[in-house]
Every structure is written in C-alpha cells, then in structure tokens.
Design goal:
The chain is mainly β. Helix content is 8%, strand content 33%.
Amino acid sequence: MRNRRLLLVLAALVALAATAANAHADLAAPTGLHGFLLRADEPARTSFPRTPSFAWNPVPGAIHYEFQLSLSTAFRDNSVVYADLDALTPVEAPPITLPWITGTPHALYARVRAITPDGATPWSANFGFDMAPANPPTPLAGYPGLLRWTPVEGASGYQVWLIDAHKVEYSNTNSLDEREFYTFHQTTSWIGQVRWRIRALRDDLTSSGAGRLNGIPAVEYGPWSSIYTSTNPAMTSGAIKLVGTVSDVFSNGSPASPAHRIMPGFLWTGSQTLSGTPVELYRVYIFTDKQCLNTVYTSAIIGSPAYAPRPGGPLALPATATAEATARSQYLTDGPEPSTYTYDGDTVKSTESAGAATPTTSVPGEPGSGTTTTTPSTPSSTSSSSTTTSSSTGLTVTGEIGAPTDLWDTNWPSSGYYWTVVGVVAGSPGAISTSVGPGGSKTGDLTLPLTSTTGFDPGDVIQIGTGSTSESATITVVSTSSVTVAVALKFGHSFGETVTRTSGGFQYEDAELPQDVCAAGRVMRFGKESEPSLVASGQLFASGLSSDGRLASALRTTSFYGQPLVSWTPALGAEVYEVQWSKTQYPFNAELDPANGQPGKMTFSNSIVLPVGPGTWWYRVRGFDYSLPTGAQQMSWSDPAKLVVAAPKFKIVGGSTAAPSAKSKVKASAGATTKYNLGTFSLSVPSSWTQTSTAGSLFAAKSATTGAAVAKESARGSRTLAAWAQALVVYAESMGATGVKSNVVHEPGGTAIHLSFLASGGKLWIEEYDFDAGSVSYRLLVDGPPSAAAANRAVAARIAASFRHT
C-alpha cells in the first residue's frame, strides 16, 4: 500500500505541473563573499594553506543559500568541486580537501545566491582564491644522530629524503634518527655529514558522502625543501649516559621540564654497558614505573646515539655473519628484524614492527560505554594515511599509517614515563643439547619432536642421533614441542636420542637488563600531554549572522542568530577532529548531531557549522592521533567555549485573538497565505492556490505552475536520521527518481528529511519533506517543471516552515 500511495501522490503532482518560474532578476545578489581560516573578520586574503571557510553579507528575507566552489568562473558542471544547496546562515565550512592550485589571477572561485520567498537572487560576484602549501619545514638545532625541523601547522606528518642513503622515510613527529648512517659503520666518513630534504604531508580525508564533486585529485604532500646538511661529531666512548628527550622542546626529566606534545626523540652518549662491554647497537625501552618492569614501548635496534620512532618499521638487520660483513659497506634498507632477545632470554619485538592501528572514523562512546570507536582497517598503499571503510556517519580514510608509535597522555610532572637505553650485541649463539621427544620420528618426516625447544631458533643447525643414523638438519620453524626442518629426515629417530645445536642462526641479544641499568641510575623521565585545539584565545573563533541581521564574528557580537560557524587551530599530532556541543558547561552533556544521531561530529577540517538552535551553548574540540593504539587515539579536549544563539524576533502584522477556523487567511511579508487545520496536522499555502482532492493524499492544493500534496507514511522508527534519509533516497530512486539530494532540516514543526529530485522521466522537479511525527511520518511534496526548480524550492521551504503536526 505504501508504494501505491506514493505513486498516487506523484501522479497527482504530474497533473499539477505547468510552466517554469524563473529567478527574480530584480532581487539583489549577496555581497561581501570572502574566505577565512578562523574568523570572518580577519584580514582579507586570497591564498590559503588549507581549505578555508566562507562568509558573506546576509540577504534580508533569505530562506537559505546555495553555495558553490568551482575551477571555472563560468561554474560549468564539470568544474564544480563542491556545492551546498541548503546553507541556513551566511557561512560555509566545506568538508573537503582542496588541491594545491594557483592561477592568474586565481584558480578557484566561490559564489553564493539566496533563495527568498520571491525566488532566487542572482549569483554573487565570484570570489577568486588559490590553494598554496605552507613553506617546507626548516632545520632546528640538532643533536648527534638526530635530524630536527620546525613543525608545520596542520601537517599530518613528514617525508624525509635521505639523499646519500637513497631512501625516503616517514615521520609523524618533528625528528628522525640517522640510523642508516650509524648502524654497522660509526666512522666519520659515514656519519660526519648527512644531506637531507623534507616536505610536509596532509591528509586527504573525506566526510562520508562529501567528496570533491568532479573528482579532481588533491595530493597529500607539499613541496620539497632545499638540501639541508647536518653534521655529527665522532662517536663518544665510555659508559652509556642518557642526555634527554627532545621534540619541539627539550626535557632532561626534571619536574621543571616541559611535557612533550608529540612523541619525542631520545638522546644518549657512550658505547659501553654496565660491565664495560663495548657495543655498537642500542635499544630504547620505555616504562610506566621507575623499576623499569612495565614496558610500554620497545624501540627498533639502531646504531645511532639517538632514537626517534618510525611508523614505517625498523631496519632490515643482517641475519647471517656474511650479511653482517656486507652491511658494514652499505646503507641498510627497511624490513623485518631477525630474532631478537632480552638479556634474560625472552623474545623481543619492536613497537615499530607492530601492525597498523585502526583509525577512529566515527564518534567514539564515553569511556567504559563499550561503544565501538573504529572501523576495520584494510591497508591498500604506503602513503601516510590509513585505509578503512567508513561508517555511514563518519569519515573515509585511505592509505597506510604504519605502526602505533605514540604514547598515551600523562599528568606531568606528577606522573610520566621512564626510559633507558641498553646495549645490543649480534652473533651466533653457542651449542645447546636436548633429546628426541615422545613418539620419535621416521624416515621422510619434516617434523621432529623434542623434549625441550627452549633456545632453538629458525636457522639453527642441529645434529640428530649418533653413529650410523646420525644426521644434521636446519631448523625452519620452532613450536613448543617440536621443530620443523628444511629437508626430510634420512633416518628414523627414537625417543631419547641426543639432539645438539652445532651452529645457531645469527641473532641479536640485549647485553644488559633494563631493570639492572635503571637500578644503577641509567634512567630518565619525560611527560607526554597531547595538545588541545584552540577554540578561544581571549575571543571566540566563531562567525555567523548576528541577532541584528549582520555578518559578524564573536569579536563584535555576543550572540548569533541561526547556526554559527566555529573554527579552531590545528593541534600538533591531530589528523581528524571531534566537535561536541552542550547546553551546560558542567556537566558537559553532548547533544546528538541531528545528521547522524551521534553525540558530536567528526571532521578532518578545522571548522564546522554548529547545528544548534536558540539558547546558550558550550562547545569543545579534540583531535585524534592515528599513531596511538586502536581505541585510544583521543587527544585532549579544548576548554569549553560559550556561544549564545538568539531566538528570532517577529513582528505581528495582523491577526486575531479568536481561535483559528479550519481555513483562515494570514497576511505575511512574503504575501498572503491560507492556513489549513486538518486535524492531525496544519499548514499554510499561498492564498492564490486552489485546494483539490487527490487519491492517497490527506491534502492537496495547486496553482497554475505548482502543486503540493501531503500523505501519511511509515514512521522513522529506531533508525538514525542519516539511515532514514538514506532509506528515503533509495525508495525515491526505486520509484524512478533521479538526481536525488538529501539533507536533515530542523523546521519549526519538527525535524524532517529534505529531498530534491527529478521525477516522471525528468518532466517534474520534486521538493519533498518527510516530517518525523513519532508513530507516523508526514510527507510533503511540492512539484513543478525542472526549469522552475529554484522557485519551487522557495515555495516548498515556506510551506514546510508552516507545517505542524499534533
């Protein structure tokens, strides 16, 4: 019955269609269109390092605005990059990454027009602008074995080109160790001079359903710097001593030292263990306790006197004595580490070797709520992002972010992390013996049971048995009770026969125990506190329509009318952001986003239009660091900032204190309307229209050019607004609709899904409003010829604004 009912309504609208209605050329176009980063009244500019927000002077009587970004001043369809057909206030925050693009005089253009009760205004004058990346990072004062540079605002990471090593490495901090130059060759000819270039990276993340319309690519990198040269002194001898940690600040571990906003690099001197053994390899350990027991980070093995985490993984260390000799005459590539062990024999795996964390792409639940905060990750490339399938209410992320090499926040200086460095030695282990396990083996077996597999590793050569049935084999796999050998056994072997390792595979072992070196005083502290985004600095970064009808920022008004645009500064380490808004400062109870039903909104940009109504509001912002472990990528919240949204002011131009009749005419600034009270709902249509009756509808009316009808439909139910909107789009398309666009709107009569589409084979333009009325929904349809789409949208908006259900 539901399908038949909509078909009847659409058929009625076809009968009502007539000639087109054009935009009113006598209406004034919007003025003052411009771009900005933080506030609408900041100094004018036409070049931006990240996607700007936009604002313009309000048009009196505007119902909403239509906004477009294009590569052409003619705004041809294939040049339009972004469009918003329903901006409620004179501000816009495009949720897209714009490509680097420059022109003479400009390469990108914005325009806007207002939709009024009398039709669409002309388009505004074009605002031309360019997208140009920030200057490349520049070197900071370095330390032996460590490259450092100035952080770039908004950068998601950096690529460092090690010119002489012929490789490009990725860093999500502002430092990179020089492990390629030091590992297995620490002479001045290898380490004395390091030439490098660097460029900043940005994420090309996309809000679900909000990509660049014409598909133009937007690269994720800025320009390479010029060639920088860093110099290093000769390696120091003597006992290993810790120097400190460094990011954009330096810390020696004292309580007066600052906390790091990003993961720091680690510095030390010396090349001798506690026992005086000389070493040329090192490993950094990080703990939560001063006894150095609870390990939270294990570095890769390196030869440099400095370490900085690399999400791309460790060096491919040599796995044989022959390969080690070769490594002393060449730069190592990246790759998996061979078998590595602690001083007391446990296996070790560096944090850089861990799998990539799953990026947070939708609003997470409160701690302890059990709400899933991420979506499954499926790596697809080697860029600096990460691949995931977005939720319907979140973000789409593509690329590969690498291992989670950052640490959680601490309350510095009362709490922090403890770190130390231990020496590492490489070589083949000595001989060990065991025996054949229960069941033995037979000729042709590849698996040999052992009474103990402790100490055996892949690559070890073993001698099995004695006498005429003795044979040697190379181990390929080790389990808890057996080993797998490379070549099938020539003889059978019985339980208890001797098995001896004659030569071990090349392996790496810590030359000292972290617990011991920490107890001896080789330990230092540091703090980590993620940077909150700045939403206020004495003044709010907010812009919108002031209560007296002017475009203004929070510098010049204490309250806004309609939905304001809020901006924030990028936070170091953040890749995406979450925004929440609450009616109270404390407790901060996040309101649900009407577009997705979630307590907040995720975005990769640095501004959004807050979907709030009249009242006093508090909002806050936090970033998400994708180099933190899965499910723990939230950074610090900003302090809540206060906003006031004023209620609209109305002027009474006529009326009566008597109860309204079933049909009453009301005079308004947009012209005469007739209000219809129809029991469960009411609405107003232009007085010039004629009420008709249409099968399947509760109400219908028409003019010479336009028609409207209302029908009762199924309830929204438990679906989110986004899911309901998607279902309505699918249903309209199944009925033959094309070019369907949808958005959530908040009308005086309640929340509704607004659809616009072509029907009847392209002969009709339909504006549809589906009002959520609890146990049911009401569908308002307004039609007309496609050439009059703008006028129909204005009429439909007026009728929708008058709709009430009881």
